């Protein structure tokens, strides 16, 4: 049985991202997968990495629990909006505090290389954006996708990482929103 962790980075529980996450979960559970749901905004933690990597800040209980869920999962699904070309601040703080040397990766002594401690896991990014995906790619180079996919998940060994972009959200009709939610459920039912 596949173990899936859905991580929701949108702080608003009434958002499209919450509906997409819940639809994905429904689809995955219909296949018999074991699914856990982590809503970052519900966690109690300080998102600031005050000392960088020089000094470790003790992890709060909610972050320790979140890390156990990340270690447990075979597949992580990250659902978030794209704001100002990036992810919401609370989601970035969550990653800053958890994806630490010795946990998600390990630097090799006297080397520019590192060990990927999350190898063997796969990922999927579902992100929403108010502009056409082609414009986000051509004009800006997809910075939020590149950051999460390449600089964070693949850096730590999560591979492959698929991407689904929900575009033109601001002007979407109720019918279009319904289609996106159905698509998210379908993605979950295919465990992608």
How would you describe this structure to a colleague?
This protein has 192 residues and is α/β, with parallel strands linked by helices. It has one domain (3-189): Rossmann fold, CATH 3.40.50. Helix content is 38%, strand content 20%. The protein is built from six helices and seven strands, in the order βαβαβαβββααβα. The strands form two sheets. A five-stranded parallel beta sheet has the order 2-1-3-6-7, with helices on both faces. Helix 1 (16-30) packs parallel to helix 6 (174-189). The longest helix is centred in the last third of the chain and has 16 residues, at 174-189.
Q: From the coordinates shown, what is the CATH architecture?
A: 3-Layer(aba) Sandwich
Structural class: alpha/beta
Compute the average pLDDT: 95
Q: How large is the count of helical segments?
A: 6
Proportion of residues in helical segments: 25-40%
- Any idea what the radius of gyration is? 17 Å
CATH topology heading = Rossmann fold
The side-by-side strand order for the widest beta sheet comes to 2-1-3-6-7
SSE pattern, N- to C-terminal: EHEHEHEEEHHEH
Span between termini: 14 Å
Regarding CATH, which class? Alpha Beta
Q: Which spans have pLDDT < 50 for at least 5 consecutive residues?
A: none
Strand content: 15-25%
Q: What would you give as the CATH superfamily?
A: Flavodoxin domain
Largest sheet entry = 5 strands, parallel
Overall 3D shape: globular
């Amino acid at each position: 049985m596949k173990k899936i962790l859905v991580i929701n980075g949108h702080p608003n529980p009434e958002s499209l991202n919450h509906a997409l996450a819940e639809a994905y979960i429904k689809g995955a559970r219909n296949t018999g997968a074991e699914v856990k749901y982590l809503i970052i905004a519900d966690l109690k933690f300080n998102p600031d990495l005050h000392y960088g990597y020089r000094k470790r800040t003790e992890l709060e209980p909610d972050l320790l629990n979140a890390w156990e869920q990340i270690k447990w999962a075979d597949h992580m699904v990250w659902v978030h909006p794209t704001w100002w070309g990036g992810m919401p601040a609370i989601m970035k703080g969550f990653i800053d505090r958890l994806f630490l040397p010795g946990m998600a990766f390990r630097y090799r002594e006297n080397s520019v290389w590192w060990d990927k401690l999350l190898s063997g896991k796969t990922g999927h990014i579902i992100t929403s954006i108010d502009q056409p995906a082609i414009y986000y790619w051509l004009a800006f180079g997809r910075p939020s996708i590149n950051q999460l996919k390449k600089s964070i998940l693949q850096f730590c060994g999560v591979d492959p990482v698929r991407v689904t972009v929900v575009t033109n959200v601001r002007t979407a009709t109720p019918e279009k929103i319904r289609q996106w939610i159905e698509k998210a459920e379908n993605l979950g039912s295919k465990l992608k």
